[in-house]
Write a structure and sequence with these properties.
The complex is a heterodimer of chains A (about 270) and B (about 750). Helices cover about 40% and strands about 15% of the residues of chain A. Chain A contains twelve helices and nine strands. In chain A, the strands form three sheets. Chain A has a five-stranded parallel sheet. In chain A, strands 3-4 form a two-stranded antiparallel ribbon. A two-stranded antiparallel ribbon of chain A has the order 6-7. In chain A, helix 11 (about 240-250) runs antiparallel to helix 12. Chain B has about 750 residues and is an alpha/beta fold. Chain B folds into six domains: about 5-115, no CATH class; about 120-185, no CATH class; about 190-245 and about 255-340, no CATH class; about 345-465, no CATH class; about 530-565, no CATH class; about 570-755, Rossmann fold, CATH 3.40.50. In chain B, the strands form five sheets. Chain B has an eight-stranded mixed sheet with strand order 9-10-16-15-14-17-18-19. In chain B, strands 2-4-3 form a three-stranded mixed sheet. In chain B, helix 5 (about 55-70) crosses helix 6 (about 75-100) and helix 22 (about 510-525) runs parallel beside helix 24. The interface of A and B includes residues 72, 202, 209, 217 and 269 of A.
């Protein structure tokens, strides 16, 4: 089939991902890596957290192992477990263990979605001990200098119950991400989708307008990612307003009033 | 959705009615061909039409399909209203043409009539302008278009232009123009010459603005103040239009496309009066029409060079010299009356009101923060009395590198401000230049001693009352703001009465309760290990031994050898708010009580945390919450007796009850927190808490609760009308029970659906 299978710890990012820095996050990220400190990225959905990690992995030339957290993620899912294959019992490393062994970057996306008893497993890795205890094998894995732990979460998400525990939070160097300013956001949209600048500017204007509805029933406005996707639709020949409807309006809400208002914004901007 | 799914949805919507299957199948056949969104749009109308007439509803579903391709989403509600109106006059025969021939009977008259009413579009127009502004703004009706900076007032109807799209576009134009007047500082103009009079910057000054504002005095210094003000409006409109042409290209294009239709309305005479000159210049600025008169050309040139409100003010004198030579009396040209007016005083008043509101919120929230750190368990009761002299003076520190703000108390302890409070502090500083010391000392006083230092407000403030009285704000939609400390909510116990009511209900509904218990027991799953899984947290020893045996025996062993922790614990807390108004007197009340008894059994079976509270009262000073079952209390015999003792009281002031319950819920640790509201009609109180005001306040309270992470759901048995329900509770967040006898069943069923 021509598909190349790769072990996740060998997954190096070879082509430079496009990342436009909005502040000193790259410097801080590199400094944290140099000093072996874990990284916490916070910010709304689609604002570039994951892209930043890709960029950092490329800069550092380390494999990036991403785990999307969910509320059934157990410690074994991260660390590893015994599996029985035929008549043998074999140990299979989890993604976190693999990352530690390979000296890669382990990126736990949406960490708050994971159960609290699961998140504590990263505690010894997250401080100066930099160790990963593997209880079932009775061993402690010491992380090499190349290993980095990074987690992300969206603070505007869900209820107070889904907040990070202070004991977890206070191990990290934190980077706050938000949507870029209009000029830079337009630049990103142009770079990612290849549309012309004038159109990107208007798309960004529309994005900013949807973010203004925060207090009016739309908790999260259009992310940069949505704008890029819409621009891609337009690049493929979809009529602008239809692309905005499919790419932004309908993706943001099901509420008829909000859809109507977003439609009006599209009409006003394009 | 395929035919079968459409049918299921339909039956659910009309439940408990059970219409003939063949009838429903015929009617739903065309529906199943549509996109899901269109199906949902049409089906959403079923609960509206079904209770009025079953056959009309079936006809609507069957033939409404064709109409959907012609109708825009915003047509749907007026269309259904028109259908129901026609049905009431001419029966099914009268309503049919509106459904089957929607173009001729509905759309064409609508287009021809051309009128657009603000009520139809205000909800999404305000969302639209909020998006343009980047913060929440409201839209409301008034004679002339103007704004007080938080609400944009627009004419109730727009019918000046010949077609509906143009009238609609006119609304969009006006709302954007007035938003721009707020954003570009039009309403903050400070003419230099009289600016020495000083702007209102010290909030401790009189709240009433008695002196005319400097800008008004500036206009009054001309012999035709209205002309001077209109010149300023003209210049500022030009600035706003330049912004529109630059930023809202779509709107600008639509205006250009429709400009001849606008122009047809604003015709010009050749007379050279100030009014015609201004009119001509204004149409040129708004609709791109080329001015021909020399004076108008001059005005347009002047308008093209202003870049701030101060420029416009300076230009007024020049413009005035230009047009006032014409010595004719000045009457506002139509086109400027269309643009509206600049309500300087109203905007200043609004600014002052917001300043006070910010001040109050800042003080009470900061006090809350300080008090919480002194004694965390004081949550419900507000802040109780303590020695006032102990109140430490505070210092607000500037933002640190991460943008965090802290307050430093005299004991040198710094406290981090929550993000919201930090934003509020920043807004106050942006408005007043720096944080007034009086705010900080008032907060310290409030936290320490219950003395607000907040002149005048302390009397009825949140702190002056004794225990278990909570003073809450109320939403006033007319001014788009809260009435601060408006309602006093008291919690009262319900005395249990020995009666056989509960026993009788339990006996009568025995079969149903047994059935419910079974259903709810299925939901009740705690943490448990599940064996023989393909992967899991640990080995399943039994399975391993078996596999080894199998292996030795030469059988291919199973690979499902793990135990997995299944965690289906229901972490749900529910508060049921029961309407105990006098209208529930009689059999409604009995059924309500019966429903609660059944629900209580269900709660008890599934083991969810739940509380039952009644609400009633009279006037804002006496809103009462009746505790039937506390969240933490077990479902005991005494609680059952209290259920039997529920009786009808006074009025239905829903807003404060919801706010009270939401506050209580904040103290509850549960993954899912649900607020069920059981009422028999619209919210209403003895005073002016009626109609739209009551609905808007209740709606706001529900929105606040949702903002706090609560799920809210309304169950109503209102027999008269229920068209306000989607607005009040939000689409999909309520049910209407038309057959009272079915209430107990529907209530429990709803709870099961909501929480499983």
């Amino acid at each position: 089939m021509g598909l190349k299978q790769q072990r996740i710890e060998e997954h190096h990012i070879t082509i430079e991902p496009f990342y436009l820095p909005l502040g000193s996050e790259i410097d801080i990220g590199l400094a944290a890596y140099g000093r072996q400190l874990p990284l916490l990225l916070k910010g709304p959905t689609g604002c570039g957290k994951t892209r930043f990690m890709h960029y950092l992995a490329w800069r550092l030339k380390r494999p990036l192992i991403t785990v999307s957290c969910h509320d059934d993620l157990s410690t074994s899912d991260l660390v590893g477990r015994y599996l029985i294959k035929g008549s043998d019992t074999i140990w299979a490393d989890g993604p976190l263990t693999r990352a530690v062994r390979a000296g890669g970057i382990c990126y736990l996306d949406e960490i708050v979605e994971a159960r609290k008893d699961t998140t504590v497993v990263i505690h010894p890795l997250g401080d100066d001990r930099r160790e990963l205890p593997i209880d079932k094998r009775g061993e402690i894995l010491r992380a090499p200098a190349e290993f980095m732990l990074a987690v992300s979460y969206n603070p505007g998400y869900q209820s107070v119950l889904k907040d990070l525990k202070p004991s977890t939070r206070q191990r990290f160097v934190s980077l706050n991400f938000s949507y870029p300013d209009p000029e830079r956001e337009a630049l990103i949209v142009v770079r990612e989708s290849g549309i012309d600048e004038g159109f990107a500017n208007r798309l960004v204007k529309l994005g900013a307008m949807t973010r203004g509805l925060k207090e009016s029933g739309l908790p999260e406005g259009a992310s940069t990612r949505l704008l890029i996707q819409t621009a891609l639709l337009v690049q493929n020949g979809i009529e602008i307003k239809k692309a905005c409807n499919a790419g932004i309006v309908q993706s943001l809400s099901d509420d008829s009033d909000i859809i109507e208002a977003l439609g009006e914004m599209v009409e006003a901007v394009f | 959705m395929n035919h079968q799914q459409c049918r299921e949805v339909f039956y659910r919507l009309v439940s408990p009615s059970l219409p003939n299957e063949w009838e429903v199948d015929d009617a739903l056949l065309p529906l199943s061909q549509l996109h899901q969104q269109q199906q949902e749009m049409l089906l959403a109308q079923v609960p509206v039409i079904w209770p009025i007439s079953h056959s009309l509803c079936l006809y609507f579903i069957e033939y409404g399909v064709g109409a959907l391709t012609l109708l825009k989403p915003h047509h749907l509600a007026p269309w259904v209203r028109a259908i129901l109106g026609a049905y009431e006059i001419g029966g099914l025969h009268g309503a049919r043409p509106l459904i089957s021939d929607v173009r001729r009977t509905f759309l064409e008259p609508l287009e021809a009539d051309g009128e657009v009413s603000l009520a139809d579009i205000s909800s999404h127009l305000s969302l639209f302008v909020s998006g343009v502004a980047g913060h929440s703004m409201q839209v409301a009706g008034d004679l002339l278009a103007h704004t007080d900076t938080t609400t944009i007032f627009l004419p109730e109807r727009m019918n000046q232009f010949s077609t509906r799209p143009v009238n609609r576009l006119a609304y969009t134009l006006l709302v954007v123009l007035h938003q721009r007047f707020c954003a570009q500082g039009t309403l903050d103009a400070q003419p230099d010459s009289i600016a020495a009079g000083g702007a209102e910057s010290d909030s401790s000054r009189s709240k009433e603005i008695v002196e005319p504002l400097p800008v008004i005095r500036f206009f009054n210094s001309f012999s035709h103040p209205v002309l001077a003000a209109d010149l300023y409006l003209l210049f500022e409109t030009a600035r706003a239009m330049r912004w529109i042409h630059h930023e809202l290209v779509g709107l600008s294009r639509q205006l250009a496309e429709r400009s001849h239709e606008f122009m047809a309305h604003f015709s010009h005479t050749t007379m050279h009066t100030p009014a015609t000159l201004l009119g001509e210049a204004a149409t040129a600025i708004l609709f791109g029409h080329q001015p021909v008169t020399q004076g108008a050309i001059h005005l347009c040139r002047m308008a093209a060079t202003n870049h701030s409100a101060a420029d416009s003010i300076t230009a007024v004198a020049d413009g005035y010299r230009l047009v006032a030579d014409l010595s004719a009396p000045y009457e506002r040209p139509f086109v400027l009356a269309f643009v509206g007016e600049l309500a300087f005083a109203k905007a200043a008043g609004e600014r002052e009101r917001q300043r006070l509101q910010r001040r109050h919120r800042f003080i009470s929230e900061l006090a809350g923060l300080l008090a919480r750190q002194i004694e965390p368990e004081e949550k419900m009761e507000g802040v109780r009395g303590r020695d006032a002299s102990a109140a430490p003076p505070l210092v607000l520190l500037p933002a640190d590198k991460e943008g965090k703000r802290r307050v430093l108390s005299s004991d040198n302890e710094s406290r981090l401000l929550p993000e919201e409070l930090a934003r509020l502090a920043a807004a106050i500083e942006a408005d007043l230049g720096s944080m007034p010391e009086s705010y900080l000392s008032a907060a310290a006083g409030l936290a320490g001693g219950g003395i607000s230092g907040d002149n005048g407000q302390g009397e009825d403030g949140a702190t002056s009352e004794r225990d278990n009285v909570l003073v809450l704000d109320e939403w006033d939609y007319r001014r788009s703001g809260y009435r601060l400390n408006w309602c006093q909510v008291r919690e009262k116990p319900v005395e249990s009465i020995r009666s056989n009511f509960v026993a009788a209900v339990l006996a009568r509904r025995q079969a149903m309760i047994l059935n419910l218990r079974r259903q709810f027991e299925q939901l009740r799953t705690d943490q448990r290990f599940s064996g023989r899984q393909s992967d899991g947290v640990d080995l399943d020893l039994d399975a391993v031994v078996e596999a080894r045996c199998d292996f030795r025996a030469g059988i291919s062993p199973s690979e499902n050898l793990f135990v997995r922790l299944l965690r289906n614990d229901r972490d749900i807390a529910t508060i049921v708010l029961v309407d105990m108004s006098s209208s529930t007197e009689g059999w409604i009340g009995t059924v309500l009580k019966e429903a609660l008894v059944v629900l209580g059994e269900a709660f008890d079976t599934v083991g969810d945390q739940f509380g039952i509270y009644g609400f009633s009262g009279m006037r804002r000073s006496r809103c009462e919450i009746f505790t039937i079952k506390r969240l933490t209390e077990s479902y005991s015999e005494e609680v059952r007796e209290r259920l039997g003792a529920i009786s009808a009281r006074e009025y239905t002031r829903l807003g404060p009850a919801v706010r009270w319950a939401a506050r209580l819920m904040k103290t509850v640790e549960a993954r899912t927190r649900l607020l069920l509201i059981l009422t028999d009609g619209k919210p209403e109180d003895y005073d002016d808490y009626k109609g739209e005001y009551a609905i808007e306040d209740s709606r706001k309270a529900l929105q606040e609760a949702r903002g706090d992470g609560l799920h809210t759901f309304g169950i109503t048995v209102d027999q008269q009308s229920h068209d306000y329900l989607p607005h009040l509770f939000g689409e999909g967040n309520y049910i209407f029970v038309d057959d009272l006898a079915k209430l107990p069943h529907r209530l429990v069923e709803m709870y099961r659906l909501l929480t499983s």
